[in-house]
Amino acid sequence: MGKVIGVISGKGGVGKTTTSVNIGATLSHNFKKNVVVVDTNVSSSNLSLHVGAHFHPLTINDALKGDVNIEETIVNHPSGLKVVPASLSVDDLFVNSDNLPEIVNDLKKEHDIVILDTAPSMGPETLNALKVCDAAIVVTTPHLPSVTDALKTIKLSEKMNVPILGVVLNMFRKNAPLTKADVEYMTNHKVIGIIEHDVNVDTSVMKKVPMVHFKPNAKASHGFKGIAASMIGVEYKPEKKWFDKIINWFIEE
Ligand SMILES: Nc1ncnc2c1ncn2[C@@H]1O[C@H](COP(=O)(O)OP(=O)(O)OP(=O)(O)O)[C@@H](O)[C@H]1O
Ligand SMILES: [Mg+2]
To answer: Counting atoms of ligand 1 from 1, which one is nearest the CA of 139?
Structure first.
């Protein structure tokens, strides 16, 4: 039986999907874990766009409706990462997500780690995702509104007995309004990784390749790999491997 890790934030656009994809890609490629990243943001999904899975005919929406088995919706990215996309269709906007815990439990039986990319805000999609999480990672940017929303989500998770593994401080820049110490003080949780703001992250999304494969030696990529390592309790030592170079070349073609 695997573990289900929710990637949560409160505020939208802070990097939940980017974090889910990149820690998933690292756990799968670098740490050889059997991982699946699941889009539980069914009303404003975009995980499929990050990995080029948007043409896959079956989505989590079909599994939520009970039309297909969740295993049938899994898409294999060329890097080896497995994802469950959500529908981009406006017709699927109001799918009921009450079955989410049940279908995620099915994935948990077959995988080491199930990463849930969650919706912004604290609506039914997020609540249904939290119901099935064994733990959660909180993503925030170094801005007051983002940290305030992160704190609300942390409180909600704790109320639901979902332990917080730590905070990811994303899109960090020199002279950011809040420091790592500020974020730790405000959230009362440890920052387990700082991800620099890097324009290559947007390019990696356009190319449908996780940043950790697109630019394996960028600081942001080392940040994601460090977080993935800390999740499984191993130390991450950055080193350039020949396989990283090959996979990068192969995907960029
Ligand atoms: N470290 C970073 N540096 C630069 N751009 C980033 C970084 N992290 C994420 N982004 C960009 O910010 C945008 C929002 O990221 P993402 O979609 O991961 O956020 P989200 O929290 O999942 O959003 P939503 O709440 O809408 O689901 C994307 O265009 C992504 O490429
Ligand atoms: Mg997202």
So the answer is: 21
Domains of the chain: 3-235 (3.40.50.300)
pLDDT in tens, 23-71: 999 999 999 999 999 999 998 889 999 999 888 899 999 999 999 999 9
pLDDT in tens, 121-136: 889 999 999 999 999 9
Closest residue by CA, ligand 1 atom 13: 13
Nearest CA to ligand 1 atom 31: 202
pTM, rounded to two decimals: 0.94
The CB density around residue 250, as the number of other CB atoms within 10 Å, is 12
C-beta 198 within 6 A of ligand 1: yes
Quick count: other Cβ atoms within 10 Å of Cβ 57?
Answer: 9
